[in-house]
Each structure stands twice: as C-alpha cells, then as structure tokens.
Write a structure and sequence with these properties.
7 helices, 10 strands, 37% helix, disordered C terminus
Length: 226
Amino acid sequence: MTQKTINKQGSVTETLRQLGNCLELVSMDPHFHNVSVGLYVKDGLCTVHTFSRVEGVADRLKEIRDQMAALGGVSPVEGSDNQFVFPCGQIHERPVRFLLAQAVGKSPEYAHPTGDMRVKDSRSDLVLYANGHESDEQYVYQISAQGEHKNPALRLRMVVAGFLRYGEMDKVADTEVAFPCGQRHDALMRLVLPYSRNISAVETMMDAEALRGQMTTGTLGFTPAV
C-alpha cells in the first residue's frame, strides 16, 4: 500500500484501523517541512505514515522507509513505498522505535560505520565491542571492552543491561546477549550499541521525545495539511 492510496481511503479513524497500532511517533521531520511521522504495526506489517498531504510527502516516506532498511536490516514490502517487515518475522519494538527516530532525524546520507561493531564508552575510556557468533541454534553477541577502567567487569554488566533494555534482548551469559527471535541482526546491533552505554541519558531523551509527540499530535501522528 502506498501513501497516496492511504490518503484516498477516507477518515482518520478508518486509516488508523487499516494501519494498526501506532508504535512510535516522531513529532517533527527536520528534513521535510517538520511534518510528524508515525510508525504503525498490524499483523507483522510496519507502515511509515503521516497525515500531512504536503507535496512530495510520499517520496519522503519512501526515503525514510528505505533508510530504515539500510540502517536496520528490515525488508521493504514489494509494491509499497512505505511498508516493511522484519525478515525474522518478529517485531523488535524498542529497536525499531530508535530506528524510526534515526531514519527521520539524521541526514538521508547517514550510514552506519563499517568494520567492527564498536563504540567509545560515554562514561569511561573503554571502547565497547559487540561480536556475533552462532551458538545453540541462536545467534549470540558477545560484549567486550578494551582500555582502562577501575572495574571493567562492572561497566560491562551495565552495558549488557542497556542491551536488555533498549534492544529488548535476552541475556545468554554475563557478557552475551541475543535477540528473542534468535536470529542475526547486525544492523540492529549497530543501532542499539550507542544507546546501551548510558541508560539514564537515553531515558531522558525518550521522555523528551514522548512529551514533544504528545504536545504536537496526541497519539495519531497527525500533521495539519500544508
């Protein structure tokens, strides 16, 4: 289903019935007229949608959907410009919320760094790494660190807790995590890795984003027509 088709199908209530639950809302798209953009989920199908009808919005939604595929490894739906599915068949709700925020907020040319999955720790001189491998019929990511810290084991436990919270991952061992579907999701892992470093800062950011969304649109992802 395309954005143009959705816009032709009537009332907001009917549109929401077709789209499903609003999983996430970005209150303003800084790269396209500050329209609000929502992510809706129904029966495993994810739809990027806005109620704005400003000229060119369908192309912008396709750009966002394609960027979500590039940054998150999701699979675009054939014949649609604004829908995708997870190849594993499971909706990874918390990571996909971060994914929408990055696809909308960052430059359309933004891409994940290539090479090792690593990031500088925000609270120490450590560099954090995530390395994946097959293990017992699931794909596991081992979290490690290099550098100086007075208690690196404690710091790693905090980072692992960040993956459990923001990646909604399962703890396999003290420094090993896996997605609940058991599948390999390197793109999502690269996405979640920076958030895992600082739970309190991410919570503050998410609260602020939620408040902006409520003030702007309630829960619908609605932007007045321009």
